[in-house]
Amino acid sequence: MGQSMVAITQQDCTGCDLCIAHCPFEALLPLAENPAQRKHSRRPVIVVENNCVGCLSCIGSCPTDALYELTIPDNAKQSILLNPTIQEKTEIVNRWKKGGLGVA
Ligand code: SF4
Ligand code: SF4
């Protein structure tokens, strides 16, 4: 069985933020700015690869199926978790304080 993590198809992400609460590792965060030319008015959520441990708790939380699992071939020599892409600037999400998500 290969190790796995997740990715998000940005054009399918409406920025609804539903998935954020499903990640115990704060690996799902909204981009600080909505990229130009996007069809959705809200900025997308991205996977903070340095935080993602591949637990898959978030899979199934996305109503548009923008979240998907990445699998690693059994013969891979190195985990893709060891080669994160350059991290784009994200919003800070209030998980604990009044008015926040109310989850860890
Ligand atoms: S796979 Fe686990 S750690 Fe990675 S984004 Fe989903 S819930 Fe978070
Ligand atoms: S649940 Fe899906 S559409 Fe909503 S923010 Fe997360 S990835 Fe985007």
Q: Could you walk me through the main structural features you see in this protein, from its secondary elements to its overall organization?
A:
There is one protein chain. Strands 1-4 form a two-stranded antiparallel sheet. It has a two-stranded antiparallel sheet with strand order 2-3. The chain has strands at residues 4-8, 28-30, 45-47, 67-71. The chain has a single domain (1-75), classed as Alpha-Beta Plaits. Helix content is 0%, strand content 15%. The structure holds iron/sulfur cluster (2 copies). One iron/sulfur cluster is lined by residues 5-6, 22-23, 25, 27-28, 47, 52-58. One iron/sulfur cluster (SF4) binds next to strand 1.
Set out the fold topology.
Blueprint: E1 4-8, E2 28-30, E3 45-47, E4 67-71
Which labels suit this protein?
single chain; 104 residues; mainly beta; Alpha-Beta Plaits; two-stranded antiparallel ribbon; two-stranded antiparallel sheet; 0% helix; 15% strand; globular; binds iron/sulfur cluster
